Amino acid sequence: MSLAGELHDGLILTKRSLLRIPRVPETLMFATIQPIMFVVLFSYVFGGAVPLPGGASYREFLLPGVFVQTMSFATAATSVGLAEDMSKGLIDRFRSLPIARSAVLVGRTTADMLLNVFVLAVMAVCGVLVGWRIHTDVGHALLAFVLITLLAFTMSWIGALIGMSVRSPEVASTAGIVWLFPVTFVSNAFVPIGGMPGWLQTIANWNPVSTFVSAARELFGNPNPFGSGLPREHPVVLSFAWIVVLLGIFVPLAVRKYRIATSR
Amino acid sequence: MPDAIVAEDLVKTYGELRALDGLSLEVPEGTVLGLLGPNGAGKTTTVRVLTTLLRPDSGRVRVAGVDVLAEPAMVRPRIGLSGQYAAVDERLTGRENLVMFGRLYHLGRKESTARAAALLDRFGLGAAADRVVQTYSGGMRRRLDLAAALVTTPPVLFLDEPTTGLDPRARVDMWGVIEELVDGGTTLLLTTQYLEEADRLADSIAVVDHGRVIARGSSDELKDRIGGETLEVVVGEDHQLPDAVSALAAVGQGEPVVDAHARRVKVPVTTGVRALIEAVRRLDDAHASILDVALHRPTLDDVFLTLTGRPAQESAPAAGDTAGEDASPADEAQERTSA
Fold first, then answer.
1. Which of B50, B89, B321 best probes binding to A when mutated, by most A CB atoms within 10 angstroms?
2. Number of structural domains found in chain B
3. Beta-carbon separation of B105 and A97 below 8 A
4. Residues 6+ apart with CB under 8 A from A150
5. What's the domain count of chain A?
């Protein structure tokens, strides 16, 4: 299968997933309500209780954290979508068609990424309303948004692998999310890691989520108080490296899973 | 005639379970093979192997002249598959589904749209074309699913239990659609739990049990093998039983079986309704009161009972075939003429 052929098939299936979005209005509703809730809850509930060095604004600190956390949770939507296709026999049908082996997954992850661009925009507007600001230039801000979007895309591939492994949409909705709570909370997303016990600080420092959050804070010019070593010095470069590594691992794994997937 | 589908000695095991246990079959081009068997016999597993979805542990498969195991990608453009569950996107409309499948078969945008419209009309879905599939009835979904398998008019078609779970009317509709298709020269492999369905649609039937083909032949050959139909009479008075026995002995094959308690007499017959009419005439001449007369067609259960010495339901379910296809085949395939 040529690259053009793969792209063509992937695009057709992206369109399929996009067509579904307005048909299930809940998708869009919950995809936007949850991040808005996080922005508002954390801003007003934790805002006063988390002191930042130099009296920096918690809301400015918080928003990149919410962006990265929400995009990490993109995993779940992809898991559920693929598990649903699997349980309804659609994956079997697709596998019997003369299409690229990657097409179904490319279609799903691309559509989910586009949905996440929209969610990200909603969050950014909401952030501006509660007092978050970008202090750098358009180029840096754009790079930050690209990085966060790519993160969502990468997490979708992990979700794809989970969805095809658990097969049932009910299990997928939990399995896609549950491991993300420790992964996103043991990081600098919501609180400075300086207040954590030493061993936890080490984990949080090297947690890729912290790296992505630091990169976003740096690119937006938001307060970015803690961390050490490579994640502290070069968060942007390290973030892109993480994306390459994670995609390099999970794209082949997910495609391999799809090739041998059996719905029942 | 060359064979469009050849499977030789397929074996697929899941742990201890031998889902396919040396299954072989061939389907000549342009003909219909009915793969008949109970839940878990290995029908779905066979279809999955033939359509590149599952690799067998051993065996050889050729479909449309292509070695399926060596070159699965070469087979896919030449086959259509419609499964037990309508595998279409429920959130899309019927038209959107068919256009998508057309595009995935690499038809152009215009061609896909035209093809979708033609198929929707042909399958009686024209009025519902722009409704979301979620609102379709079971029969409509199955028809759409079948249409999706026909977007490129593939030379070889696989239908896995196309009518399981449909109500009788939708089933008859579906049969009409499939018959039309077969008249067009498509090679078809059809799996079913219903002898009646295989009878009506298939040129040749292969009975599958425990992952192997245990009998093959035309519908008539199989029926002959299992003794054709059974004529059954219930009389009003005990003393009329001898009259019933002699009437049935005259029209049937062999010694009638008597259930004295129920005042019921049974005999296998080969002449169908003619035997029934003759028996009724004889009983009437003898002034016997008839409470019930019935002619039973052979059911899948009869086939199994005869071929394996045990009822079909006792076949252990195999992976690949699932629960959910559990409608009792006996009830549905049985045709009863009551007087």
1. B89
2. 2
3. yes
4. A240, A243
5. 1
| Pair (B263, B215) in one structural domain | no
pLDDT beneath 70: ranges in chain B: 1, 86, 226-227, 299-301, 304-305, 308-339
Q: Which two tokens stand for residue A41?
A: 């809850």
The C-alpha of A14 sits at a distance from chain B's nearest C-alpha, in angstroms, of 11
B98 assigned to some structural domain: yes
Contact B24, B9 (CB under 8 A): yes
CB B195 within 8 A of CB B300: yes
> Could you please report the per-residue DSSP string of B100-163?
HHHHHTT--HHHHHHHHHHHHHHTT-GGGTTSBGGGS-HHHHHHHHHHHHTTT--SEEEEESTT
Instruction: Spell out which chain A residues touch chain B, with contact meaning CB-CB distance below 8 angstroms.
Output: 1, 8-9, 12-13, 15-16, 19-20, 23-24, 88-90, 92-99, 103, 262, 264
pLDDT digits over A161-182, tens only?
Answer: 999 998 888 888 888 888 888 8
Q: Are B203 and B186 in contact (CB under 8 A)?
A: no
Range(s) of the domain holding residue B15? 3-224
Same domain, yes or no, for B269 and B197?
A: no
Which positions 44-73 of B are in contact with A (Cβ < 8 Å)?
48, 51-54, 73
Residues B39 and B181 in one domain: yes
Residues of B in contact with A8 (CB under 8 A): 106
Same domain, B136 and B247: no
* ipTM > 0.85 for the complex: yes
In the stretch 70-109 of chain B, residues with CB closer than 8 A to chain A read 73, 76-77, 79, 81, 83-92, 96, 100-101, 103-106
Question: What is the amino acid identity at position A190?
Answer: F
In this structure, the answer to whether residues B198 and B241 fall within a common structural domain is: no
Measured between alpha carbons, how far is B258 from B238 in angstroms, rounded to an integer? 11
CA-nearest residue of chain B to A10? B104
Residue A52 within any structural domain of the chain: no
* Chain B residues lying within 8 Å of A12, measured CB to CB: 100, 103-104
Q: Is A221 exposed, middle or buried (0-12, 13-18, 19+ CB in 10 A)?
A: middle
CATH of the domain at B273: 3.30.70.100
Can you give the residue range of the structural domain that contains A141? 3-43+58-259
Secondary structure (3-state) at B254: coil
Q: In whole angstroms, what is the distance from residue B301 CA to residue A44 CA?
A: 70
Is B310 part of a structural domain of the chain?
no
pLDDT in tens, A65-118: 999 999 998 888 999 999 999 988 899 899 999 999 899 999 999 999 999 999
